[in-house]
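Q: Given only this backbone (498 positions), what sequence would you predict?
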């Protein structure tokens, strides 16, 4: 091999090296004495800007001082140093280089430090993104109690991520990693429906696996989980793999039960409130006829005691008044018994005419409304229209709406409540309106929410409208506020019996 050929090879080698890696050299003081073109390109500095500087010119500030102290301690001892350094280019952008620094003793006895670096910024950025994704995924999975699984059907091997082991309260080393082992953690009463759901999704490509079931932990605790999975098939359509997620919904179900219990308590409070309102209404309705009975009874006794002459006709009139008034009280009590049957529980609906509904409402409420100086008006069409509903709940809705109207207009000079009824588009519509000037839009948007009230403390619980809406919906009807009405008006609609 000739010298020229050897030198050419060295030139070719350095040229290839310049294109592939970042090359630099520093003197004993760390001052840059050589920077190849790739170093200039990556750092953004020209060779003239780099020569004579030390590597602090590209220091990113990410590494602590101890990092570079250890690096220089190794080099001063004559040892090669390898590692990853994060630098900053001229534009302030971070780049990462895999670095090898080798001490070289020159002919004059001086030391220079030869550095070869490979730009691995894309790999580092990708790794950081993956670490961020994994960390984020872990945080989300932990927060949502969400795990992932992968079942190789042909080999019957099952892979769980860490979150599923936490959900099932089992150590990875104690898990057999098969479908049968998974079933052993499921509640015995749910195993059949799990197998059926899996079988359906495996046999029918259009059926996705989704099931809520219980898990029985080794310590005897019962958890609720929601599983969703997708089946992957080979070219022949045979299931080969199934992947999915499982979510611990125990707390969610507990919250649902709590909400249901609270809802029941609200409904119970509303029932008691309604019964109280009805008792108040009945007392007002009964007090007046009782007073009539007492007056006439005392009048009759007085006439009999004094043996007044020619009083037979008057005694006869008084006794008739007592009888008629007693029958009126009897009607009131019968109405109360009828509409409060079953303690306001939603029972089987029955057919009832709109005439009966209005008559019951008048019996319960008319005297009390009259005593408050409020004029009660009725405009009822199709009086004999039959509704299939529950009269007890319907009366409670009506009473709640009447109570709200009475409270709202109690200080007005012009006080009236109007109940209108008519058949409309296959439904029967009741409009309960009063002389108020409507409800502010902000209040109207909230008034059906439980416990929301504009009444003073002690004068309302805020459950009336919310419960009335629930009852209307339970009976297949609707309860809405008419924002377009000049006065305050609620609309109650129920299907007509067919």
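A: Predicted residues:
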């Amino acid at each position: 091999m000739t010298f020229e050929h050897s030198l050419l090879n060295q030139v070719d080698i350095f040229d290839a090296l310049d294109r592939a890696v970042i090359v630099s050299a520093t003197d004993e003081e760390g001052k840059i004495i050589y920077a190849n073109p790739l170093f200039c390109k990556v750092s953004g500095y020209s060779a003239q800007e780099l020569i004579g500087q030390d590597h602090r010119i590209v220091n990113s500030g990410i590494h602590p001082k101890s990092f570079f102290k250890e690096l220089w301690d190794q080099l001063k001892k004559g040892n090669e140093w390898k590692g990853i350094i994060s630098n900053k280019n001229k534009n302030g952008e971070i780049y990462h280089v895999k670095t090898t620094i080798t001490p070289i003793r020159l002919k004059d006895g001086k030391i220079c430090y030869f550095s070869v670096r490979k730009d691995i910024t894309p790999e580092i950025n990708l790794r950081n993104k993956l670490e961020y994704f994994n960390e984020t995924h872990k945080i989300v999975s932990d927060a949502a109690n969400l795990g992932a699984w992968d079942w190789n059907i042909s080999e019957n091997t099952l892979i769980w991520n860490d979150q599923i082991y936490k959900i099932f309260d089992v150590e990875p080393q104690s898990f057999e990693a098969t479908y049968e082992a998974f079933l052993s953690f499921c509640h015995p009463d749910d195993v059949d429906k799990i197998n059926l759901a899996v079988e359906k999704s495996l046999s029918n490509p259009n059926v996705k696996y989704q099931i809520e079931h219980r898990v029985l932990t080794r310590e005897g605790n019962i958890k609720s989980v929601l599983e969703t999975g997708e089946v992957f098939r080979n070219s022949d359509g045979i299931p080969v793999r199934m992947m999915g997620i499982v979510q611990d919904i125990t707390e969610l179900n507990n919250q649902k039960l709590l909400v249901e219990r609270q809802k029941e308590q609200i409904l119970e409070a509303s029932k008691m409130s309604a019964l109280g309102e009805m008792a108040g209404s009945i007392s007002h309705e009964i007090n007046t006829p009782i007073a009539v009975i007492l007056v006439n009874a005392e009048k009759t006794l007085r006439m009999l005691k004094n043996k007044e002459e020619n009083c037979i006709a008057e005694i006869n009139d008084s006794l008739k008044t007592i009888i008629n008034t007693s029958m009126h009280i009897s009607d009131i009590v019968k109405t109360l018994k009828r509409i409060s049957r079953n303690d306001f529980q939603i029972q089987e609906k029955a057919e009832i005419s709109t005439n009966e509904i209005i008559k019951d409402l008048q019996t319960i409420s008319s005297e009390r409304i009259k005593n408050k100086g409020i004029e009660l008006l009725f405009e009822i069409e199709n009086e004999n229209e039959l509704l299939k509903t529950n009269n007890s709940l319907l009366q409670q809705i009506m009473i709640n709406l009447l109570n709200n109207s009475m409270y709202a207009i109690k200080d007005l000079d012009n006080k009236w409540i109007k109940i209108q009824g008519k058949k409309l588009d296959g439904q029967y519509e009741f409009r309960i309106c009063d002389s108020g000037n409507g409800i502010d839009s902000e209040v109207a948007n909230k008034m059906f929410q439980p416990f929301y009230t504009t009444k003073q403390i002690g004068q309302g619980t805020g459950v009336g409208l919310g419960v009335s809406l629930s009852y209307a919906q339970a009976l297949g009807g609707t309860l809405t506020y008419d924002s377009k009405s000049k006065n305050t008006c609620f609309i109650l609609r129920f299907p007509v019996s067919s």
